[in-house]
Amino acid sequence: MFAYIIRRVLYAIPILIGVNLLTFALFFVVNSPDDMAVSQLGDKYVTPEAIDNWKRKHGYDKPLFLNPDAGGVETLTDTIFFNKSVKLFAFDFGRSESGRDITTDVTTRMGPSLAVALPTFLVGIGVNICVALMVVMFRATPLDRGAVLVFVALMSISYLFYIIGGQFLVAKTWKLVPISGFHPEGQVWKFLILPVLVGVVAGIGAGARWYRTLFLEEANQDYVRTARAKGCSELRILFRHILPNAMIPILTGVVVLIPALFMGSLLIESFFGIPGLGSYMLDAIRSQDFAIVRSMVFIGSILYIVGLILTDISYTWADPRVRLS
Q1: Using CA atoms, how far apart are residues 86 and 67, in angstroms rounded to an integer?
Q2: Which residue(s) pair with 101 in the sheet?
Q3: How far apart are CA 30 and CA 293, in angstroms?
Q4: What are the pLDDT digits (tens) for 69-122?
Q5: Is 292 exposed, middle or buried (0-12, 13-18, 19+ CB in 10 A)?
Q6: Is the Cα torsion angle 295, 299, 300, 302 positive or negative in sign?
Q7: Which three-class secondary structure string do you get for the chain?
Q8: Shortest CA distance to 190 belongs to which of 200, 202, 205, 180?
Q9: Span 122-150, mean pLDDT?
Q10: How far is CA 77 from CA 66, 219, 232, 258, in A?
């Protein structure tokens, strides 16, 4: 297992290089250093001298990939790509275009993101699995068909509707919780109830429908018919046979969501005023802060690869056949 993990980590290096190159190329296809300077300085009264000074101060006065005037190794190292992107592999995120330390910002904002994403993640999985198991228990009945219609309807509704509807109904009309905001001290749960509730409700349609499909596929297997012929109750069949045998696809869909726990949700954090990594990323895109964008994309890539490795490791726990192979 240790050799397998090391091999997967080595495989991740070219993936990270490719993601880094693609992010760098796409950003500079859309924005030139001059555009970034104008965005940071402001459109009014920006002189060519001010733009040149800004680029020189932030290291954007050099060539993108190759610097033939430097000579030697500096042909590659004295470039924007090396100074801005290669250093990410040493987890040196540097400073944003506004001068803030990115590592400090990420560390500070990770807490609020996890405070919202972790309960949404855990409660959502539990609710979706329970709802799907209940529907499978009454499969091929009017309740099952009605549940599928409800799932499809919930999937068809925009995520923004859940956010705005939740804020209007729960916060504004019933006045049960604050409509937005976040305070790290005191009663934090008041600011988290509504975002978590919205995230769970918005995910029931797609999540429960997917789990229902997995459980129905297992319910038609021969071992289930054998267990039923032996007189096992439906509850025992669901929880002792169907659920454990459906863990492989469940783990595949669950563990790869780990990056979302750390990166946060753009819409949730923006509409509820939560100072997490999702709103941090969105603000960086709006202000064309390439330093933050490339750092967040790099962190997200690493977390996604870690999620895939954890998925493979969890297979050995869920399925003894994987341990024996």
Answers
A1: 15
A2: 95
A3: 13
A4: 777 888 888 888 888 888 888 888 888 877 889 999 999 999 999 899 999 999
A5: buried
A6: positive
A7: CHHHHHHHHHHHHHHHHHHHHHHHHHHHHHCCHHHHHHHHHCCCCCCHHHHHHHHHHHCCCCCCCCCCCCCCCHHHHCCHHHHHCHHHHHCCCCECCCCCEHHHHHHHHHHHHHHHHHHHHHHHHHHHHHHHHHHHHCCCCHHHHHHHHHHHHHHHCCHHHHHHHHHHHHHHHCCCCCCCCCCCCCCCHHHHHHHHHHHHHHHHHHHHHHHHHHHHHHHCCHHHHHHHHCCCCHHHHHHHHHHHHCHHHHHHHHHCCHHHHHHCCHHHHHHCCCCCHHHHHHHHHHCCCHHHHHHHHHHHHHHHHHHHHHHHHHHHHHCHHHHHC
A8: 180
A9: 93
A10: 8, 59, 68, 34
Angstrom distance (rounded) from CA 11 to CA 9: 5
- Token duo for residue 136: 């499978």
Task: Specify the residue for token string 């004295």.
Answer: 78
Distance separating alpha carbons of residues 253 and 213, to the nearest angstrom? 13
Q: Domain-by-domain residue ranges, the chain?
A: 2-90, 105-324
| CA-closest candidate to residue 113, choices 19, 184, 163, 23 | 184
Cβ distance 270 to 243 under 8 Å? no
Q: What is the pLDDT of residue 324?
A: 46
* Alpha-carbon separation of residue 139 from 126, 142, 155, 305 (angstroms): 20, 8, 20, 37
Sign of dihedral through CA atoms 159, 304, 109, 91? negative
Q: Amino acid letter at 266?
A: L
CA distances from 33 to 30, 40, 140, 148 (A): 10, 11, 61, 51
As a residue count, the chain comes to: 325
> CA–CA separation, 325 vs 285, rounded Å?
46
**Looking at the domain covering 105-324, what would its CATH class be?**
mainly alpha
**In this model, does residue 39 exceed pLDDT 80?**
no
Dist. CA 198–CA 161, nearest whole Å = 10
